[in-house]
Amino acid sequence: MYTIGEFAALGRVSVRMLRHYDAIGLLAPARVDVRTGYRSYAIDQLPLLLRIVELRALGVGLERIAGLAGVEDQDAALRALLVERRRDLESSIAADRLRIARIERRLRQLEGAIMSDIFYKTLPSVTVYAVHGVAPGMGPENVSPVIGPLIHGLDRALEAAGRPLLEPGIFWYGAEGEDGVSVHVSYSAEDDPVAGEGYDVVELPEVPRAATLQHRGDMSGIGESWSTLMQQLVADGYRVVGDTREVYLEADGHEPGPDWLTELQVPVERA
């Protein structure tokens, strides 16, 4: 038998951590002296301690490690856990790489290497085939889950009605209210639009003056482009007076790619 100090040294953990593992039921000592309260550990408990230490070093939570206890096929359970952890890490790395790319782009903007060309222009009225939904808030994490089903639903409705899917696609967003943000997805309609089931014929009115900015690339950095546009229009003495739009000037399919060209449009008037 080993004292708690000796056993901690074998596993290269602290005595405090061993006491914590005991408190949460993850690794109880083999024996506790009823008189002194001293804990003792058996050598056959060392593989479990070493597994806990290894998995903690890989970022696996104690709750997930505890879930291995009592599993009949330990190797299969451990393999599944490691595959899950690898998938989580790969996802985290991909997200961090996108953040780094956005930081680099922002730094280049601050250094003057990237110019943001913002233009003010009139937007002509346009008739579209549209559907709409409600997102819990702005931001890709809220809007994207709503947009996907809207796009596929509109595609199916227009195909069933025999209407063409004409580019450019136009998305527009209402102001956030108590129920969330209204999200509208549309395709340009023909000169003689035809009503049908599962979509609306909507005429977007002329906008006398809109602040616009073209965003090249996928949606990972579009928040930054929106921020740049909003900051500049305020600095130029304007205020927002209508629903913002995203017009997909160059877009292949429904999966945003690096070659996509999206024009951001904001109706404005002098503040």
Please give a structural write-up:
The protein has three domains: 2-69, Multidrug-efflux Transporter Regulator, Chain: A, Domain 2 (Orthogonal Bundle); 72-113; 118-270, Regulatory factor, effector binding domain (Multidrug-efflux Transporter 1 Regulator Bmrr, Chain A, Alpha-Beta Barrel). With 271 residues, the protein is of the alpha+beta class. The strands form two sheets. Strands 4, 5, 6, 7, 8, 9, 10, 11 and 12 form a nine-stranded antiparallel sheet that branches. It has a three-stranded antiparallel sheet with strand order 1-3-2, covered by helices on one side. Helices cover 39% and strands 27% of the residues.
Could you outline the blueprint of secondary structure elements for this entry?
Layout: E1 2-3, H1 4-11, H2 15-23, E2 31-32, E3 39-41, H3 46-57, H4 62-66, H5 74-110, E4 118-123, E5 126-135, H6 140-160, E6 166-173, E7 181-188, E8 200-204, E9 207-216, H7 222-235, E10 238-240, E11 244-250, E12 261-270
Antiparallel strand pairs: 1-3, 2-3, 4-9, 5-7, 5-8, 6-7, 6-11, 9-12, 10-12, 11-12
Tally of DSSP β-strands: 12
As residue ranges, the low-confidence spans are none
How much helical structure, as a percent, in the residues? Answer: 25-40%
Q: Nearest-angstrom radius of gyration?
A: 29 Å
Main sheet? Answer: 9 strands, antiparallel
Write down the CATH topology of the largest domain: Multidrug-efflux Transporter 1 Regulator Bmrr, Chain A
Multimeric organization:
single chain
Question: Structural class per helix/strand content?
Answer: alpha+beta
CATH class of the largest domain: Alpha Beta
